[in-house]
Amino acid sequence: MALLRAAAAADLLRRHRRAPLPLLLSALSPPPPTTPESCPDGPSPVAPYFAPPPPPLCRRRRSWPPPPPPPRVSSSSYVGRGILLPATFSIYSPLSTSSSASPDGSPDEDSSPPHPSPAAAPPSSWVDRWLPQAARPYAMLARLDKPIGTWLLAWPCFWSISMAAMPGELPDMRMLALFGCGAVLLRGAGCTVNDLLDRDIDNKVERTKSRPFASGILTPTQGVGFLGLQLLLGLGILLQLNNYSRILGASSLLLVFSYPLMKRFTFWPQAYLGLTYNWGALLGWAAIKESLDPAIILPLYTAGICWTLVYDTIYAHQDKEDDLKVGVKSTALRFGDLTKHWISGFGVACIGSLALSGYSADLAWPYYPFLAAASAQLAWQISTVDLSDHLDCNRKFVSNKWFGALIFGGVLCGRLT
């Protein structure tokens, strides 16, 4: 019996020495796929590669199929909620509707894409690119980002100064520079007054609701202080002119301060703007001659007023729907569907008055080809403008800088010849 027991123990020991390898492999092997029929509540795959699979273990409420393994994450990306995103992605990047800045408003360099995105719009003007942030609202208030208004104010001054020059001589360059600076300051002062008086109207008009007062960026007190600074600088320019010009220039302030109110009382605020914007036609001649020559200056002043009625009526068609809502008036509303007929008449009167003024000033023949080119430019504006298209109205309005430049070139050539 003892011998039989020893033999059985030895046989059992030999069997256990051969078993560890398959057992170890079965414990380390991943499970093969199983069919749903093997476990109605959702199988949990557990089986070795080298050993016969044991019966599947069932776990309740397990989703099927099992979720895929997470993707490998590189150093330039991360995974959030199953979506592979670039490391530079940010909700404040130019791809989103928010600005490229952190929530507190400070620039976030890490949120910028490695390459410029075509959706990222460049700064709209030199004001955004070059001026410090604190100065930008004041520059916007003076419309420094939109120089077309300054050109429209300066051109009649330049026409008049050039006509007042002696035959064969260039106009007074110092006077041209003074009137150029004065145009910037006076135009800025006029826009400040306009926005102060119209701040309750501007916030109801789509085109103007982002202006500094309408949007609340600047307070009226800050605007009054800025207006005082502009007028003080303008006074410094006015004091460099002769006494006749000082009185004539100071009298223009009545027009500048009253113009913004005209749209509340009359359908002809554009005509009042013409009286204001073309005052330089009187002042430029007076600054050179210390007097006024009605035969030359009155036709020139009339031409400027008719020109203003053309371009500012086109401009007013951008706001005609909003003007009706808030109850303000304009020639765009007054003329309606007959706008092109009206501004064609004003255009003819403008060219005729310029021809009469040049003839009275004894300008030589080169003036008239330039006048013909300016006539063609004005006719192109009136004939091609789409008064129902805001962008086209603005394009035609801005193109008037070339009309003024053609007249100025004609006066120069007519005086030098």
TrEMBL record:
This is 4-hydroxybenzoate polyprenyltransferase, mitochondrial. Catalyzes the prenylation of para-hydroxybenzoate (PHB) with an all-trans polyprenyl group. Mediates the second step in the final reaction sequence of coenzyme Q (CoQ) biosynthesis, which is the condensation of the polyisoprenoid side chain with PHB, generating the first membrane-bound Q intermediate. It is a multi-pass membrane protein. GO terms for cellular component: mitochondrial inner membrane. It catalyses: an all-trans-polyprenyl diphosphate + 4-hydroxybenzoate = a 4-hydroxy-3-(all-trans-polyprenyl)benzoate + diphosphate; 4-hydroxybenzoate + (2E)-geranyl diphosphate = 3-geranyl-4-hydroxybenzoate + diphosphate. It comes from Oryza glumipatula. GO terms for molecular function: 4-hydroxybenzoate geranyltransferase activity; 4-hydroxybenzoate polyprenyltransferase activity. Residues 42-57 have a biased composition (Pro residues). The keyword Mitochondrion applies. It is found in: Membrane; Mitochondrion inner membrane. Its EC number is 2.5.1.39.
